[in-house]
Structures are given as structure tokens and as C-alpha cells.
Design goal:
alpha/beta, 6-stranded mixed β-sheet, 3-stranded antiparallel β-sheet, globular
């Protein structure tokens, strides 16, 4: 991929808030040949100030490298990344930020650089959050390097908890159900939980030892009909009944922040950042919102949660191998990873770095849950499952009185059909 040997290409002016272009060809007389590392990052993943500070620090530490950070929109990014991985163009990326669950689809065809050696030898990969690290693997080889995580917590009304006599956030599922029953009175919903919130259901299934799909002999099969998965669905049904969430819609229809902001809901399951949206819509709730991790089956271990977030990958075709690896190392290393977490209210990529966000209640709750984080099945075909999601249909049918075991078998068959591609 490319290079302008005597060029200094830096962060685009739009990122720096400058009126003039901050990029261009600037000779470096008397210096050794410089190389440009092109980095694609997603919009809003990092602040302009963070990128400016990171770029200055990185280029100071690597005098022979310049960074060209290009911000991408999430809309349509899949096709754009696919095209970049297939072609060798002068402006192609050397490092790409991708969603953690997107990594499997890009690994296919040997299109990503295998970073297993660096992960084990240099980067402490054994400490990474599993919800970021596992989706970045294929056959025990690491291609996606965890950058940051975000996951759901319980956002609750402290005042309503007090009025109901709930003195502390619940730490077990049993305590959570008992508290929610108390809260579901006096015109308030104990919890607003949409019937098709399959991400939240996934956590309950994982907590029971089940999964959405399992792989055996290079074949994936839906597993919603296992006893463990059915127990997870049963808990979801009990919890969902303690509010008025629509059984035939997900958490975005209507947006649950809008519902919570009306003042008649005691709890929702959402990322902590949604609290800001709620307060913007209803300023009377300022100072009344709290956060706790989704409870697990035992008090000493939070419940499993779906981990969202991003990994960094390096296209195999890059001609800036060393520079690309250096960028990944710096962005995912302790210094800049904790700085990103503090700046953007993310969870750092390692359990051992959780203390960096302990001062912010919502992020601390998120970090506690992230230690039990998981991701969707690590297969490129999972996108086909989500495109025509049988899990949502299954949930609605159970919540409207259908037999769970029967509907779970039907949903599992649909999942299996979507995944009917051999990994061999």
C-alpha cells in the first residue's frame, strides 16, 4: 500500500478543529525516509482531542512514522472494509477499527494479519476481556486486537427504590426479581423490558451455561432449545412481566430512553450513556439515576452480558507491517487504552485496567459486568441470523403464551439453517 517517502500526512484538519488543512506534503529535510500509516477509526469512537494527543505522542516516539487518521461512518462501513481488504491501493488503510462481532467476516480468505505472536508474547492477551478477544480469534489465532468495550447495566431510579423500601441495588437474580416486584406498583413499572431485547436474553442464557448456537465438527447449530437456554428464557419471561414493555418489539421501538424519561419506570437495561439522554429529556431526573451491574446467580459474580465495542485489525496486504503493529500496540496498550476509557466512558480492554474508570458510577458498573462479557457466536454466518432474527420471534411467542420448548426448537432450526456453512 503506497507511500510518499518524504511526506508528512497527519490527522485531518476536521479532527483538529482547524480552519486550514492540517495535512499535506511537507518535506523533512535531513531526516531519514518517513512512512505513513493510514488508520481508519469510526466516528465518535474517540474525541478529537484524544486523537490529537495520541498522534503527537506516537509520532514523537516513532520519528520515522506519520499517522493519517481517517474517520469513517458506521453506515455502509462493511462494504467499504471488504473492498479495502480485497484491493491494494495507495490510499488503503493499514489499521482498521471494526466492531468486535464483525471480525469473523473479515478473517475469511486470510485477509487479516495474524497477530497471535504479538498478543501472547508482548501484549498480555490472556488478560483481555473475552467479549472482545474471542470474536477476534479463528482457530486459536488472534486477528482482532481488543480496543474498548461497552455493555449493558441496569439504570435505575434511586428515589423510587427508596420509596419501595429497596435499600441497596440487588446483587443476585432472586434479589432482582424481589425488588422489581416491589417497584411494580403505584402506577410505576418495576422494569421496562421490551419483549425482543435478545441481547439481554443472551446474558441470561450464558449465565445458565447455555448459548445461542454451538459448533461441533466445524458445523454450527442453534441451541436455544437446550435446558440451560430455556432456563435463561424463563428468567427473562418473569422479569419482563414486571413492567409493560411491548412483547412484539425491541428496545428501540419505541426507544427505551423516551419511555424511561416519562417518569413512570423504575429500571431499564441499557448502556450507561443512555442516562444522559434521559436527563436531557427530563431534567427533573437529574441526580436521581443510579447504576448497577446486571445481577448474576450469585452475589459474588455479576451476570453475563453481551459485550459490544471495537477491535483493531491489520490488513494482510499492508506494506507498513511494522508501523501498523506499532499503532495497534500503542492504542491498545495500558497508557492510551486507559486514557481513552476515561475520556469516552468506555471499559478498558483488560480486567486489570478496570480501576481506571472506578470513579464514574455508570462506567464502574459496566466494567464489573464486562468481566463476564460474551459476544455472539464467532462465525461469519452469524450476520445472516441477525438479518432475519428468529430469536426475536421466539421471544415474542413465549411471552404471549406459546410453549417455550416447542418454540425454542423451531427457532433453533432457523438459526441452524442460517449457519449452514462448514468451517472446514
Amino acid at each position: 500500500m503506497r507511500r510518499h517517502p518524504l511526506a508528512h500526512v497527519c490527522v485531518p484538519a476536521a479532527l483538529l478543529g482547524l480552519g486550514l488543512s492540517a495535512c499535506g506534503l511537507v518535506p523533512h529535510l535531513g531526516e531519514s525516509e518517513r512512512h505513513t500509516v493510514t488508520v481508519w477509526l469510526m466516528k465518535d469512537s474517540a474525541s478529537q482531542d484524544f486523537l490529537r494527543r495520541f498522534t503527537e505522542d506516537f509520532e514523537r516516539a516513532h520519528p520515522d512514522l506519520d499517522l493519517d487518521i481517517r474517520i469513517q461512518e458506521w453506515t455502509g462501513i462493511g462494504a467499504k472494509v471488504e473492498a479495502a481488504l480485497e484491493t491494494d491501493t495507495p490510499s488503503g488503510p493499514d489499521v482498521i477499527e471494526v466492531g468486535n462481532t464483525q471480525v469473523p467476516q473479515y478473517v475469511e480468505g486470510g485477509r487479516l494479519l495474524d497477530l497471535t505472536l504479538e498478543s501472547v508474547r508482548d501484549w498480555g492477551g490472556r488478560d483481555w476481556l473475552p467479549g472482545l478477544a474471542v470474536p477476534g480469534q479463528l482457530r486459536n489465532h488472534q486477528y482482532g486486537i481488543p480496543w474498548y468495550a461497552a455493555n449493558r447495566v441496569v439504570i435505575y431510579r434511586k428515589d423510587l427504590f427508596g420509596q419501595a423500601g429497596v435499600k441497596a441495588p440487588p446483587r443476585t437474580r432472586a434479589e432482582w426479581l424481589a425488588a422489581t416486584e416491589k417497584l411494580d406498583s403505584d402506577g410505576h413499572q418495576g422494569i421496562y423490558l421490551a419483549g425482543q431485547d435478545w441481547y439481554t436474553l443472551s446474558g441470561f442464557i450464558w449465565d445458565e451455561g447455555g448459548d445461542l448456537a454451538t459448533e461441533r465438527n466445524s458445523i454450527w447449530q442453534g441451541s436455544l432449545d437446550t435446558p440451560a437456554a430455556l432456563r435463561g428464557m424463563d428468567f427473562y419471561r418473569k422479569l419482563q412481566s414486571l413492567g409493560d414493555g411491548p412483547v412484539a418489539a425491541d428496545e428501540d421501538h419505541p426507544p427505551q430512553a423516551d419511555v424511561f424519561a416519562r417518569g413512570k419506570v423504575a429500571q431499564i437495561v441499557a448502556v450507561p450513556g443512555l442516562a444522559r439522554v434521559i436527563v436531557q429529556q427530563n431534567p427533573d431526573l437529574a441526580g436521581k439515576l443510579g447504576f448497577f451491574p446486571v445481577p448474576g446467580k450469585r452475589a459474588d459474580k455479576p451476570g453475563a452480558v453481551f459485550t459490544g465495542g471495537s477491535d483493531l485489525v491489520v490488513p494482510r496486504r499492508t506494506d507498513q507491517h511494522d508501523g501498523a503493529v506499532a499503532v495497534v500496540k500503542a492504542l491498545t496498550g495500558a497508557k492510551w487504552n486507559t486514557e481513552l476509557a476515561r475520556t469516552m466512558n468506555y471499559v478498558p480492554n483488560k480486567r486489570t485496567l478496570a480501576g481506571a474508570v472506578s470513579g464514574e458510577e455508570g462506567v464502574a458498573a459496566m466494567a464489573a459486568g464486562a468481566a463476564q462479557g460474551r459476544a455472539t457466536p464467532s462465525t461469519p454466518e452469524w450476520a445472516a441470523v441477525e438479518a432475519d432474527n428468529p430469536i426475536k420471534d421466539y421471544m415474542t411467542k413465549v411471552l404471549t403464551g406459546a410453549d417455550p420448548a416447542t418454540e425454542a426448537r423451531r427457532a433453533s432450526r432457523r438459526v441452524t439453517k442460517a449457519l449452514e456453512v462448514s468451517l472446514g
